[in-house]
What we know:
Oligomer: single chain
Family: Belongs to the OMP decarboxylase family. Type 1 subfamily.
Pfam family, one: OMPdecase
Order of helices and strands: EHEHHEHEHEHHEHEHEHH
Number of strands: 8
Bound molecules: orotidine-5'-monophosphate
Largest sheet: 8 strands, parallel, barrel
Enzyme class: lyase
CATH class: Alpha Beta
Protein name: Orotidine 5'-phosphate decarboxylase
CATH superfamily: Aldolase class I
Distance between the termini: 14 Å
Shape: globular
Number of domains: 1
Subunit structure: Homodimer.
Number of helices: 11
Strand order of the largest sheet: 1-2-3-4-5-6-7-8
CATH topology: TIM Barrel
Structural class: alpha/beta
Strand content: 15-25%
Amino acid sequence: xxxxxxxxxxxxxxxxxxxxxxxxxxxxxxxxxxxxxxxxxxxxxxxxxxxxxxxxxxxxxxxxxxxxxxxxxxxxxxxxxxxxxxxxxxxxxxxxxxxxxxxxxxxxxxxxxxxxxxxxxxxxxxxxxxxxxxxxxxxxxxxxxxxxxxxxxxxxxxxxxxxxxxxxxxxxxxxxxxxxxxxxxxxxxxxxxxxxxxxxxxxxxxxxxxxxxxxxxxxxxxxxxxxxxxxxxxxxxxxxxxxx
Length: 244
Ligand SMILES: O=C(O)c1cc(=O)[nH]c(=O)n1[C@@H]1O[C@H](COP(=O)(O)O)[C@@H](O)[C@H]1O
């Protein structure tokens, strides 16, 4: 990431809530601080597409995280519909393969209104909650997590997508293989002392930027904090101090 970029533009707050009321309670104190939010399945399924317009009207950028994963024709149609909602970033599962991802990109392009910017399209590699033994034994995918993530990143690039979701720990290898411009969006962010919860491949916000992540996705560390504004400010200050 370029040193000149405002890191607040690169820190996406995951709004994992199920009602508009909870979203309002969370973002109102954070207004003027946060710039980018993520709407995942919990919120999108509960509140529908209107939630995207609501957040856009607040001046926030929106990552609509619906992790599309289906046959190519269905993924294409899903993306054509999603393109009309006004999100800035959308995603698919890279495990759907090159044909599915290429079809998703085509659908997204078809659905984007003339003159409007196409949302950034990224592929989820290996979920950050997945550890080595789950990947090797349950999913029966051999090899190291790093090698599988880089392989999925290369499939994603081949399909013409803009980048991937991965853990920050894999970013240096992804950038080396797929190029510096290939976008990396990284959940699995835990400030020192934060509860790890269900995440496996984690690191701190400052380390994630140091490793070259373009965007950090941070959910519960902020949204479950006693004082989300103070937590946000502390993360920003820690990252800025680390980058000097
Ligand atoms: O696509 C995602 O955003 C995603 C991919 C992944 O591999 N891991 C992952 O945690 N996420 C999302 O990132 C957010 C992380 O939330 P916290 O663990 O609360 O910070 C959640 O909303 C997840 O749905």
